[in-house]
Each structure stands twice: as C-alpha cells, then as structure tokens.
Amino acid sequence: MMVVLGLLSTMSLQAGEKLPVLEAGNDVYSNVTVLSVSATDVFFIYNNGKGLANAKLKSLSPDLQKHFHYDPGTARKVEQKQTLANAEYTRLATSQPAPQPPGEIQPQVPVDPVTSEAGKKLWANSFLNRKAPDLIVEKWLTPEPDCRGKFVLIDFWATWCPPCREAIPELNAYHEQFGDKLVIIGISDETEEAVRRLVNPRIEYSIAIDTQARTKNAVGVTGIPHVLIIDPQGIVRWEGFPFLQGYELNEKVVADILARYSS
After folding, report:
1. Are 176 and 146 a contacting pair, CB within 8 Å?
2. Inside any domain, residue 109
C-alpha cells in the first residue's frame, strides 16, 4: 500500500521511507521501513523486515511528530471513537459464558452496564466509597508489591482486549509518576503463558494472574478494562472503564485522588 507522507520540508515522500532508528517511548526499533501513517499511529517493519509493529505518534519525538503531521486534537477524536468501539467489542466478548462441563447449568451473566449513583455507566458492581473486596492472586508474574500505606490501582484486563492494551502506556506513566504513593497491579484470568507472551506494549508495573477470576467475580466485572483505585484504608475512590467519555481516568484524576484521600 502506497501512502504519501509529509516531510519536515516542503518535499513529499511515499510509504517505504527508511529510518535507521525509531524511538517510541521506551521502545527502540532499528532499520525501520514505514508502511503507512494514520492520525494516531505509524505502521512499519523493522530489523530488516523481521518484525512488524506500530507506534503511537504521541509517543514519538517532537521532530518525528511534525514529520508525520501529528495533530493531537484530531488524534484524540479518533482514539475516543476507537476506544468506544473497542469497549463494545470487549463487552460482547466478555459476556459470552465460559464453557461448562456436560450436565452443568451455565449461570446468567449480566452484560448490560449499570448506572452508578453518580450517573456513570459501569460494567461491574459499584464499590465507590465502600470497602474493596480482597485481592486474591494465584501467582505473581512480577515481584509482589508492598502495598502498606499506599493507594492501589487494580486493573482487570486481558491480553486479547484492545482497550486493555491501549491502557498499558497510561498505567506505565502513572507507575512512573506516582510510584511513591501508588501501587499499580494488573490482574488477568488468563494463563501465565498467555500473559508472558505479551511483550508489546511492555508492562512496567506489577502483574498477577488468577485463572479462577475470584476478585474479578467478587467485583462483578462483565467488561474490561475495569479499574479500581483504593485508598490506604482499603476504600474504593475511583472505579470504572478508564476511557468512558466524560469520565476518563487521566493524570489529573489520579493526582486529585491521591491528594484528597491521603491521610
């Protein structure tokens, strides 16, 4: 596929542009050949054609953002539309009942969102300003974090879920910025092998699995990603789908929660 790209100057260049190095956040790719560019991403092969990847334009250097005509406002609108579409896909996917042994009755699983007292849609039961259920972990895939005296952000997620993967760079950023006060834990009910296979995007916070989904079921999660932010006393101070329009979880929201509920 041939795509015309703008250069830093008035020249133009077609897809097939080669870059010796492309840095996207903490990821570095060498011997890159550009395939196409969208409002949000650049798609490319790297390592002399041995790898295929994409990178968010917002994670590139200012020079490369200008090079690829990155416009934050346009990208934000595109991402919001895609996020909502992904959320609906994830809701439908997670609403399918798990296979049961012959003769067992499959339980009814609630799949429609509920509306919290604040008027916010939730694909889970509401625990806002209530004690959070205990976090039950089958196995830590990273060192077990010390949560004593800290806020805890729990992200219910899965590797196959597009918005879950989209949330990883944001969670990495919260881990980097607020790590002295906030512990971030991603918990999946997939197998260890499935979670370890995900290497892009790279996860920099704590990861655990529970194939029995005990905490997930206690929270009543029917759509992912679903996030809880819990204060040092164990009370839930934020909950929900982190990309829900009008209720997005972002750096300012996290900072406000840490300031408001710090003892």
Report:
1. no
2. no
